[in-house]
Amino acid sequence: MLFYEPLFLFIFLPNFYLLYLLAERRYWLRGGVILLGSIVFYEWSEPLFAALVLLSCVADFLIARRIAQIPASSRQAKLLLALGIMINVAMLVHFKYTRFLIQNLDSLLTGLSVQPLTVPSIALPVGVSFVVFEKITYLVDVHRRLSHPARNFATYLTYVFFFPKLLAGPIIKYHEIETQLSNLPKANFDDFSVGFQRFMLGVVKKTLIADTLASGADMVFGNPAGAVSFAEAWWGVIFFTFQIYFDFSAYSDMAIGIARMLGFRLLENFNMPYISCSITEFWRRWHISLSTWIREYLYIPLGGNRVPPGRRYLNLWLCFFASGLWHGAAWTYVVWGAYNGVFLVLDKLFLLRLLDRMPRWQANAFTFLVTVVGWTVFRAGSLHQAGIFLSAMVRPRQTSSAQIFITNDIFVATALAAVCCVLPRLPGFDRLRTLFLERRRWNFAMETALALLFVCAVGKAVADPFKPFLYFRF
Questions:
Q1: For residue 114, is pLDDT > 70?
Q2: Quick one: three-class SS letters along the chain?
Q3: Active-site pick, 143, 148, 327, 384
Q4: Least C-beta-crowded within 10 Å: which of 82, 115, 281, 390?
Q5: Among 75-89, 375-389, 421-435, which stretch is predicted with the lowest mean pLDDT?
Q6: How far, CA to CA in Å, does 37 sit from each of 13, 130, 186, 366?
Q7: First vs last Cα of the chain: how many Å apart?
Q8: Is the alpha carbon torsion for 153, 167, 89, 315 positive or negative?
């Protein structure tokens, strides 16, 4: 169930919100509406996996309660934590990586003239990586004494299944939302107004910009591997560079907006990443919930900044190698993660000092170029196709016999996306934005324009084939 499809907009969300308002005065009833609505929302998309998540939640809940009853430093607590993490990681590995591992083993055995293996067909549940990461944070937070175990099983299920963030994040750490789950907030008109405007913004970004750019990127990357020219390669990668940002940040806008309509505050997941002046800064601004998760639950346990420099750089690289693998079971994602890890290490060694001495626009341009090259590998269907595109991107004279007809609406969406990403880099932007927000008439004009664009976006979503969010497959 997509946030911007008619089933959600005109049936699920209005009925759910009406029930939520009717249950406003009773804590237990309000919590029941949220939990039931969230389970129905996920059951609609993943009925079998939802049942498995429910069973694993029972294990999480019991293990966490036992960990809280014994000293965190005890051997039993550590073994229980390891058991809980293994249960969740095993679920992730089975659904996401089994097919990938068997395919690569089969390729190896085939090269050795061994009988080929049967590659199983395992459907990838929507949002499995987000669900598993959040379940692990609960266990680790309880073990670290950052939070108490959930007061009851229903509260823990609400944390896991809370539908605004369920399918594609942001990844919510249990200690960040524990207070809100324990004392369910009451929504008011301001929450509804602010939340619905944020939701509308997400729908506009997804439907009018990201989906339009997706058509261009799919057209170029779907072309025969050897038939891409210099210009087509660059256009295809630029289309995808803006598509993935507007697609993913649009989901975060919708998730944060719906949560706000219910009275919840979720942390931001993006902060204008394409104005970054280094890869380190980029990862502080892009998919913030994943970056902070990696730092707190992987980098710090590996030693963080407490280990010698060589080990610290290796740990940093390993963390982003793992980040690439988290994004998908394909060598393109693995190489993309390793590529980002290399530049993060280079930042620590010398690149940050070099970029700091550059004018901001030059450092920004360099970082953007590094990011675009990375997205080329990320979007490619295989390492072979990535190599074809990267080769074409450095050969200005390369042409293609196949002709790709890119429509004007795709170029308009690209220009609009570029303007939106570049504006915050311009001098005086913050002052202009503050002045704009202080003028009530301008605010009203912006809200009216957003509402009109939202109507257009919904109309386009109904008329065009649905394009799922990119991060649903991660």
A1: no
A2: CCCCCHHHHHHHHHHHHHHHHHCCCCHHHHHHHHHHHHHHHHHHHCHHHHHHHHHHHHHHHHHHHHHHHCCCCCHHHHHHHHHHHHHHHHHHHHHHHHHHHHHHHHHHHHHCCCCCCCCCCCCCCCCHHHHHHHHHHHHHHHHCCCCCCCCCHHHHHHHHHCHHHHCCCCCCCHHHHHHHHHCCCCCCHHHHHHHHHHHHHHHHHHHHHHHHHHHHHHHHHCCCCCCCCHHHHHHHHHHHHHHHHHHHHHHHHHHHHHHHHCCCCCCCCCCCHHHCCCHHHHHHHCCHHHHHHHHHHHHCCCCHHHCCHHHHHHHHHHHHHHHHHHHCCCHHHHHHHHHHHHHHHHHHHHHHHHHHCCCHHHHHHHHHHHHHHHHHHHHCCCHHHHHHHHHHHCCCCCCCCCCCCCCHHHHHHHHHHHHHHHHHHCCCHHHHHHHHHHCHHHHHHHHHHHHHHHHHHHHHHHHCCCCCCHHHHC
A3: 327
A4: 115
A5: 421-435
A6: 9, 19, 17, 46
A7: 16
A8: negative
User: What gap in Å lies between CA 336 and CA 8, rounded to an integer?
Assistant: 34
Query: What are phi and psi for residue 293, nearest 5 degrees?
Result: -65, -45
Buried b (16+ CB within 10 A) or exposed e, 378-398: bbbeeeebbebbbebbeeeee
**CB-CB contact of 318 with 395 (8 Å):** no
User: How far is C-alpha 39 from the chain's CA centre?
Assistant: 21
User: Which two three-digit tokens encode residue 350?
Assistant: 């010398």
Q: Cα 391 from chain centroid? A: 29
Find, among 271, 305, 265, the residue nearest to 288 by Cα.
Answer: 271
128-143 helix and 153-161 helix, angle to the nearest 10 degrees: 140
Tokens, residue 176: 């960040």
Q: What pLDDT digit, counting tens, does each position of 357-383 carry?
A: 999 999 999 999 999 999 999 999 899
Query: At residue 238, does pLDDT exceed 70?
Result: yes
Structure confidence at residue 439 (pLDDT): 63
Is 327 catalytic? The answer is: yes
Q: Whole-angstrom Cα distance, residue 128 to residue 428?
A: 42
**HSE, side-chain direction, 13 A CA sphere, residue 466:** 11
pLDDT for residue 95 is more than 90: no
Instruction: Say if CB 158 and CB 181 are below 8 A apart.
Output: yes
> Are the CB atoms for 406 and 219 separated by under 8 Å?
yes
Whether a cis peptide bond, with omega within 30° of 0, leads into 47 is: no
